[in-house]
Amino acid sequence: MDNKLTILLAQLNPTVGALDKNSDQIFRTYLDAKKKEIDLVVFPEMFLTGYQVQDLILNPTFQADVASHIEMLVQKCSGKTALLFGAPILEGSDLYNAYLLIKSGQVEVITKKKHLPNFDIFDEYRYFKSGNLAKTFKIKKAIIGCPICEDIWLPDVTSTLKKKGANLIISPNGSPYERGKLNLRHNVVQKRCLENKLPIIYLNLIGGQDDQVFDGGSFMTDEKGKIKVQLPQFEEKKFLIEFEKSGNLLGPITKFTAQVGNETKQDYCAIVQGTRDYVIKTGFEKVILGLSGGIDSALVAAIAVDAMGPENVTCVRLPSQFSSEGSLIDADKLTDRLGCLTKTIPIIEPYKVMLGLLKKEFQNLKEDLTEENLQSRIRGTILMALSNKFGSMLLTTGNKSEVAVGYSTIYGDMCGGYNPIKDIYKTRLYDLCRWRNTKKEVWMKGPGKEVIPKTIIDKPPSAELRPDQKDLDTLPPYHILDTILEGLIEKKLSIMEISSLGIDMNLVKKVEKLVYASEYKRFQSAPGVHLTKGSFWLGRRYPIVQHWKEPS
Question: What is this structure's pTM?
Fold first, then answer.
C-alpha cells in the first residue's frame, strides 16, 4: 500500500578501513530487503569506512578506493528498494562527512554534515568541511530529512528540514558510548520531536574502534517524543519499522522495547565489546594476562573470558618471594571458576640473577623503587615473550586511579596491547566485580554466579613488591584519591574547589603533581575503553613537558 512505508534499520558493526567487508554488509542487507520488498534500508554514519577514520581519510589512495566502492554499491543496488548509508565524499579539494541516498541505481541525494564536533574525542574540523543545511527527499509519501549525528543535537538542521516539508527524520550516528549517554540521546531527540512535531529515527553504530565503543541503542520516537522503538545496546540488530500516513502525518506503527541495563551493566558491556573487537580486529584470536590474585587482574580475566571465551584466555601467575599465599590461592580459585588456561612461572630466580648483575652498580645504595620496578619489568618481559611466542595479545590490568597517578611501572606491568579497565577508577571497579558476580547473561562467554572470589574483593589492595606492602603505604585511601582525580580530570575543578569538599589542600596538590608527572607514562601506554569524558588518550591530551601550576 502506498500509504505504508517500511524501513529496515541496520545497527551493525563495521571495521575501519575494511571497505570490502563493510560494503558487503551493506549489499547483503540491501539484497535481503529487496527480496522482501522493503522500501528503505538505513545504515549509520560513515558505515562504509567505519568511524573514526582519523588521518587515514587524508590518504588520496584511500579516498579513491572509497569512491570506487560507492560506485560499485550504486551499480549493484539498483532495485526499487532505496538505500541510505554514510561515507566520506570528496568534491574538489573539500572532504565531507556525507550520507548518500541510492535509488534505482543512482545517487539521488547527498546530505553533508553541517555541525562538525570538535571537542573531547572528536576533531572533525581536521578532516571535513561543513556542509549546507540538509536536503529532503521522497520515499513513497514520506518526505525525509537526515541530520547527521551532531546535526540532531542542535535545532537548526531539523527545523529547516521541517520547513522544507519533512514528515520523517532519520538521523544516522557514530556516537561512542559514554556513561549516561543513552539518556542524553533520548532527551535531545525528544526535544527535536517536540519542537517540530515529527517522528525521529536515531540510528547508531555498534562495535569497538581503538579506544571507542559504539553501543548501538538505536531508537525511534513518535511526533510527540514518545519512544516507540528501543533497540538493544552492544548487540547487532536488523529491525523493520513500519509507518502509515494519515493526512500530513507519518505515524509509526511498530513498537519494540529492548531492556536497557543500569550504568554498571553498560560499562561492563562496553568493556567486553571494546576488548573483543580490538583483539579480533587487530588480527588476534587469543589473549594473555598476568594474574596476581588482586582485584584488577581478576576483573580483567573475567572480562577477557566473557569477551573471548575461556579457551582463548591464558592467565599467568608470576609469584615472587613477596607474593602472599592468599593471593596464589585466590588466583587458583578464579581460574578454576573461569575455566581458562593457567600457567605459573616464578620470578624468584630471575630476580636474584638481575640483582646479582646489578650488585656492583648498586653497591652501598639502599633498596628503593628500583628493586620493586625490576620485579615488574621481569614479569613484563616474560609476559611479552609468551605473547610473541604464542601469538596472544597481552592485556594490561592497570585501573584509572593507578594510571592517573603513575602507580605503575613503565615497561613492566604497563606492557601490553590493550587495557580494558583504563577508564575505571578503583572504587568503581569493585562495583563491576560485584555486578559480574551476580550475573550470567547470554552474551557472556564465561560462567555465571560468583566468578571473582569474595576474598579478592575484600582484601586490602597491594602490589606485593616488598614485605607486607599495601597501596595505602603510597597512596591515599581510594575513595579520597578517586574523588580528587574525578574533580581534576572529569569535572575540571580547581584545587580550591576540591579541597572545599573536606579534603586537605596539600594532598590535592600532591595528587595533581602526580597526574602531571605521569603524562609521559600514559603517552606510552596501551589504549583502553573510553567510558567517560576524561578518558586518557583522545579524551584528554596534555603536553608531556609543561611547567604550569595552578596559582595558590
Answer: 0.94
Taken in order of first residue, the domains within the chain and their CATH numbers are 4-260 (3.60.110.10), 264-473 (3.40.50.620)
Residue 46 confidence (pLDDT)? 97
3-state secondary structure (DSSP) of residue 428: helix
Q: What is the band of 467 on the pLDDT scale with cuts at 50, 70, 90? A: confident
Torsions phi, psi for 294 (to 5 deg)? -95, 175
Question: Nine-digit cell at 25?
Answer: 554488509
Which of 45, 223, 464, 486 is flagged as catalytic? Answer: 45
**Please, which pLDDT band fits residue 257 given cuts at 50, 70 and 90?**
confident
C-alpha cell at 382: 616474560
- The number of residues making up the chain comes to 552
Instruction: Please identify which of the residues 146, 149, 269, 340 carries the catalytic annotation.
Output: 149
For residue 61, what are the CA distances in angstroms to 21, 52, 70?
18, 18, 14
Chain-centroid distance, C-alpha 481: 25
Chain centroid to Cα 321, Å, comes to: 38
Catalytic (active site) residue 4: no
Based on the residue annotation, tell me whether 450 is a catalytic residue of this protein. no
The catalytic residue among 112, 113, 135, 422 is 113
113 is annotated as an active-site residue: yes
- Per-residue confidence band for 236, with pLDDT thresholds at 50, 70 and 90: very high
CB 210 within 8 A of CB 278: yes
Instruction: Say which range, 220-224, 284-288, 433-437, 464-468, has the weakest mean pLDDT.
Output: 464-468
